[in-house]
Amino acid sequence: MNTGAALHSSTGQSRTDRMPMLQLRDVSKLFAGSNDYALHPTSFNIATNEVLVLLGSSGSGKSTLLKLINRLLIPTAGEIFFKRQPISSYDPVLLKRSIGYVFQSIGLFPHLTVAENVSTVPHLQGKNKQQCQSIATKYLALVNLDPKIYAQRLPHELSGGQQQRVGVARALATEADLLLMDEPFGALDSITRDQLQQELLSLKQQLGKTIIFVTHDIFEALTLADRIAVLHQGRLHQLGTKYELVNQPATDFVRDLFKKPLQQLANIAADSSHG
Ligand code: ADP
Ligand code: MG
Question: 16 burial class (0-12, 13-18, 19+ CB within 10 angstroms)?
Fold first, then answer.
């Protein structure tokens, strides 16, 4: 498998070398009692203000990679640098608070109001009640939830899409430069998901965040990514722009991954020319 060559031939590499938000150097994870790596040694950089999408099927190591980045997991070998400092040198609690994390399962606190959920980290950081309220108001408005209507509700009084917006607002309210988003829109219907994808792109423009976004959905990856990292069975097959992945696939797996959707689009285009 041509993973190393693929990785280093990425044209994105020189761009990310200028201002890396995050650098992985031969990072691997072998879980105790397991006989194969959940993540084989992996190296790449993520530039400031970049959206990197981790694309792979279930069990490919996407969540493991995110958890290594915010130190929910410790690598078996290798080193991760956040803003040029090894993450092992950060206080783990401070590190978790300086990296926003959005889960698929949302993970809102059911007994806290929407506003309290959004301002969880600012509250832990010692902000007073008034400051927390104004932070919650600001970020609820940013994710298109009217604070007057939603701030005092409990999570169960919201739709799935609205809850996911609260999850995004909570991650933004950490005011972290780096957001990790683990299949955040996976459980939503496709119309709501399209809306949230567009909103995320516009938030990225407004706020200048660096985002690592996990998905198993090729079209979601193509919509959101500056660059896409294709993971399969714990190996990084290729990291590059969508043009590179489609036109210069580094492995058979990457080529086959894009072949079917491209073929479907080509078929639709051919059909419409007859209609
Ligand atoms: P993905 O998020 O791409 O679906 P994961 O990163 O969750 O994949 O899992 C990658 C592999 O690591 C899987 O084979 C999974 O079973 C294994 N794995 C994940 N977490 C643990 C754990 N805590 N202990 C043992 N194996 C794990
Ligand atoms: Mg996962």
Answer: buried
Pocket mutation for ligand 1, best pick of 27, 28, 30, 31 (most atoms within 8 Å of C-beta): 31
Quote the domain boundaries for residue 264. 1-83+213-275
Q: What is the pTM of this model?
A: 0.87
Q: Residue 61 CA: which ligand is closest?
A: 1
Average confidence (pLDDT) per 10 residues, the chain, 275 residues: 39 54 97 95 96 95 95 95 94 84 79 95 91 94 92 94 88 88 84 86 86 94 96 97 95 93 85 67
**Distance in angstroms between the alpha carbons of the first and the last residue of the chain:** 43
Which of 30, 34, 37 for a ligand 1 pocket mutation test, highest count of atoms within 8 Å of Cβ?
A: 34
Whether 202 is in a domain gets the answer no
What CATH number is associated with residue 55? 3.40.50.300
Asked whether the beta carbons of 84 and 21 are under 8 A apart, the reply is: no
User: Is 41 in a helix, a strand, or coil?
Assistant: strand
Amino acid (one-letter) located at 192? T
Q: Which residues line ligand 1 (CB under 6 A)?
A: 31, 34, 38, 56, 58-64
